[in-house]
Fold this sequence. Notes:
Tetracycline Repressor, domain 2; 0% strand
Amino acid sequence: MNRETVVTEALNLLDEVGLETVSTRRLAKRLGVEQPSLYYHFKTKKDLLAAMAEAAMAPHATAPLPKPEDDWREWFLENSRSFRRTLLQRRDGARLHAGSVPTGDLDRIGRKMDFLTGSGVPEQDAQMAMLAVGRYTVGCVLEEQADTGPAEDLPADVPALDHDKAFEAGLALILGGLLRHVAPTDSALTVDAGR
């Protein structure tokens, strides 16, 4: 049993029972070991959850970084979509991720910020936009993963929420707000930003 095996089995347990029910006792039983042996790899359950959150984010954390010739607006949208897709891959993925610190991802974050500022986005606005869209995405996924279906007490003429469309609409609003802080580089951008 190694650290990677423990994290993999912990994520499988998460998918089966949900975050509330994940425990070191259940994980040890699943691995066929005594509970104290888990502490060789993780001193606390909090350490285990942090490792699980980092492993769960691997699909997003290994996505290609932007290239200088990329359109920053398209990249901003796709980066946010990638984050959402990754959170949705795991049961309670947003809850697992919420409050985690991206300690292993700092170089990638720096390169993303350099790309945005190199594309003309003011540094402070780039930082705030990335923070805002990250929190927006986590919030959307929290709500989506908590959705148990149509509410019985809603009137029949109230449509069910389409999570994909709602996410895209909010994402467009965040990008639209950011565009107001970026100097237009062509007439098309001026028209788009004015909508």
